[in-house]
Amino acid sequence: MGRPTWGGIVQHHRTVPRTAYLASTPSGKDRVRLFCFHHAGGGASAFAGFERALADRIDVVRVQLPGREGRIGQRLPPRMADIVTELDAHLDPYLTGDYAFYGHSMGALVAHDLAARRQARGANLPSRLIAAACRAPHLPPAFAALHDGTDEVLIRTMTDIGGLSPALLGRPEWVRAAVSLTRGDLRLCAGRDTTPGEPLRCAIDVFHGEDDPLVSAGQARGWARRTAGAFGWHTFEGGHFFQLGPAADVVARAIARLLVKAALPGVR
For this UniProt entry, which segments traverse the membrane (predicted)? Predict the structure, then answer.
């Protein structure tokens, strides 16, 4: 895709460009920044809850891939490596100082591959990668094989795991759009290179839903192989989208403890 139209914002006393890959931008306050990468078929709005819950301690920066929400009509690059290359270029001015990545499902793979690319070229790395609801990156990605399946199977699976509200099934045009978007994202995951590279020189924490039908605990624990640093394991009540359910506040508090090494006000 073409280069974006650059605007200017001030962050940490210097001007950095705006990019369509960010649905929210760093505040410029001197605190850790958390870049959030959304799931297949989703968008940056999935992290609005994080932004509200963590606003007083952490700069939540929501990453937006093409083809959804404010970027409808923009072409999704054909390969995961292409997306990662673009993200590295577009986000590089923001990836300074103390920052971390949070990726949910497909987003965890995007975040991992971006960190790996930055490590390979000697760029500043995140202090921590939080991989949620995702099989280890050297394993076949969950759900991705359905990218060439029928609409009926894809719709049923999306509904079963909570990725498509049953209330939308009566809106065929919305369902078609959701299926098309999800299919494109899953195609990216299915074609991704799963060859293990050098372990990341940053900590990795895995967030896992106890009832996730797509990712087993063993598959998620495989992330331990991808770090040369500390590894953390955290389980939460819920399924594949546990961060949107009853455990939402617990997830936000866990992130705060990891990133600021101190609980949010009122949190023990």
Answer: none
